[in-house]
Amino acid sequence: MARVLYIEDEQEIGRWVTMNLTERGHHVTWLQSGEEIEEHLAHCDLVILDVMLPGLDGFSIGKRIKKEQPDLPILMLSARTAIEDKVEGLSFADDYLTKPFHPDELAARVEVLLRRFNKNDEILKLKHLTIHTKDMRIVNHETGEEILLTGKQYQIFQYFLRHLNQILTKEQLYEGVWGEPYIEGDKTLMVHIRYLREKLEKDPKNPEIIETIRGIGYRVRK
Amino acid sequence: MKSVKRLRSLTAKYMAIILTALFLIYLLIIGTSLLVFNVYDHKDPETLQIEKAWHQDARSLKNPGSEDINRMFEKWQNRYPKARLFWVDSNGRLAAGRNLAANIPKHWNAAYTANFIKARYDNDPFTVIAFPNNDASYGFVVFEIERKLLQPAFTEANADFMYFIVPGGIVLFVTVSYLFFLGIRKRLLYLQQAMEIRDVDGLPVAITVRKQDEIGQLEMAFNQMVDELRESRKREEAEEQLRKELIANLSHDLRTPLTKIRAHAYTLEKEALTPVARQAVNMIEQSVSKMDRLIENLISYTLLNAKKLKYEPTPTDVVRLARSFIAAWYPAFEKEGFFIDVQLDDLEQKHWNVDPLWMERIFDNLFQNVIRHAKDGKYIGLKTKKTDSYDALVVLDRGKGFRHKSSEKGAGIGLAIVDLMVKKMELDWKIESSETGTIITIIHYRSC
């Protein structure tokens, strides 16, 4: 599925993660230090970086990668859980997962990142919809009709797909799509979601694609 | 410490002022003597001149008769018209006189004469008694004059000196002393102000030492103290860094083997296992999660207690924050089959001055406890609450309450962290726990 560059000095953990991600269909290149990283960077979709490395530490390597390739997602993997470490990690990395993590959790986060950065040429199936993520083509495979969205509807739906399975609060959605602070009581988002549902849902009164999470927000779930 | 050079010391300066003042007093006394009493230009006072001349004139009368005496009296009367002059002859008779007072008797006996001499001696009127021809047998001639009619004993020409120079000297001394102490006071005040100035790191700033006296020495001592303080702060920071590093490393070192345990358990799980073995793997997995939480809590608790956990309060919309927390936990509750009841309405004051990461930690601990200890209730509630005096966020569950022994212990430290954080952020909280559930209220009292 994706080409993952994994930097981890701990043998047992490195072997296990490599095996696990490979089993899930990813192509993993595992390095034990950040020294020869340059030659691999051009050929990967995602970097998984351990913080405590011999020589140059994970934070420094991560910052350098981000500077050179801002659109290459980085997932920090660390046994350091101090808030300061997380804050520093997230100042450049796209996600920060602490050890001991569960492999399912790691795999889920990898997928989220790949989707967020549009690295996956994925064909997503959500109920009656088939979505080609790379070019955002939405087809109702039950009727064979292609669904066309307006600009804002497209942006909202894409935001949902990038945060698949996550619950998005209305503030998060509004600010993510419109790029300006949400003002309490603003109905714009609700109106757009209603129109979006009218296009996507079989029965807009009982939505299946865009779930309403009462009191919190919305979710699109695979 | 360096001692102050003697000449530069304040004591020396003040002693110099005092000595100058004393010297000035002597100078004044001598000056006064010179100028007022006219020591150099000395002349006999008039009284003495009169005395000498009167005696001389009396002595020069070789065979004194009333004619001679009258001539002498005339000469004297020309010089001193107001003087009273008289002659008492050997028989005690008042034989001649000028300007005589009424109470002068015509006859003088021995007693009266003795009395007269006694009364006039060194008194007013100024009186000179002489024997004509220096012989008592001719009786005696008397000259008397009111002292006020004579020239004073000293020259009054320089008396201004007494009126201006002496008070001037005193004023000068007072002024110099005042300026001296004013100077000291000014420097002490400057020192006080300088001591109160704080650098960005909260430590006092070193002072420029301008003079090498006692105050200068005080300033140097102060600077030395500032240096030591800064040094000690540096050491403390280094120790702090070391400690944090140690804790971070400890956390890392504990979690790495835990990750390996999980990795191996996961690998085992993929194998074909007997139900018993599968259950054992499951238990290992759960223990790893539990250990992970305990390490995290223990480290946080240690840092919190030592007041070393990073704390950055900022006015935060807590309703929005709470919504994002429950959104993150939603899948976990959903997976356990909970009914998730979220009713987050607007609060009177929804911007609380809190650290969002600390709030996240508080809610993580509370939600974690609900999943671990109140699974049976299958209910999680997150609500806002408004009363007359406070706004609050409320977490509810329908578990068996705190008194019921949960299969998983260790809730204590999680709640202890909540308690420390709530108090540090100047919030309040309360737990109402019964057999039918627990209500935890995080309270923010409204500021007026």
TrEMBL record, chain A:
The keyword Membrane does not apply. One of its GO terms (biological process) is regulation of DNA-templated transcription. GO terms for cellular component: cytosol; protein-DNA complex. The keyword Phosphoprotein applies. Residues 121-222 form the OmpR/PhoB-type domain. PROSITE patterns: OMPR_PHOB, RESPONSE_REGULATORY. Residues 121-222 bind DNA. The modification 4-aspartylphosphate is found at residue 50. It comes from the Bacteria. It is found in: Cytoplasm. Keywords: DNA-binding, Phosphoprotein, Transcription, Transcription regulation, Two-component regulatory system. Signal peptide: none annotated. This is DNA-binding response regulator. It comes from Geobacillus thermodenitrificans (strain NG80-2).
